[in-house]
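can u pls check wat happens w/ iron/sulfur cluster
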Amino acid sequence: MINYHQPLYRPPAEANSIIIQATLGCSYNKCSFCTMYESKNFVIRKLEDVFSDIDKISKYYNDSNKLFLADGDALSLSTEHLIKIIDYAYLKFPKLRRVSLYASAFNLYDKSLDELKLLRSKGLTLIYYGIESGSFDILKKIQKPISNKKMIDGLNKAYEANLKISATVILGLAGKKYSKEHITASANLINQVNITYLSTLQLMLEPHTKQKFIKNFKDEFQELNEKEMLEEQIEFISLLNPLNKVIFRSNHVSNILPLAGTLPKDKNRLLEELSFVIKKIF
Ligand code: SF4
């Protein structure tokens, strides 16, 4: 079997997928809340090594139908390089029907519509994308400065290319003082784009990054408690009016209350569940 370069991460929905590391680490690796790839330098793995991993794993799991390309932002690869990997994977896994990867907002913005269409035609189907916040001011504070315009441009291109997007927003990311700005801007952004899946995570800071993270808020950052997280969730869901049907999940290990539904159909039910839990527990 293959030796993965640890640590290895994948989205919860890829639990049953084959995982191949096309890159190691994250090409950006500067977001102040994220420690996932802090121990790795970004590396584009040689094609021969990626092919060798595909060869090895396809011997045992030849009938796999889902593939996730790790690590942190495989969409940072050139389109040509990525197509070689996707082509080879479809050759070696004859039943493959879904190929997904993580992309940063920067990666998606950098790809042209034609490149995304080409990747879709080759069999890339789903992109996991961290919105984190719709507020540019908050994104600057967390060291992921990308404008709304660029995020909307990237997400619209993906939609036009018929790629599914699974996006995440981080509750508690802006602390108490900027909570309203964070939630309003995040909902506004989502209401302007077409995505397939939406999840909320809760901010979880590792002790060794906390100080640095807070410093960027000029020490105005106060963490939300569990009740405030749920209230932020209520505020967020109540502001969502997506353009298309969105499958909503809040099932990450960080979430104190798992939620699942389809928006806008289940909006009231989700809000009722949240209000019920707040009333019962706090
Ligand atoms: S782009 Fe994603 S993986 Fe990279 S540092 Fe930011 S949150 Fe972490």
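The CA atoms of residues 201 and 252 lie 6 Å apart.
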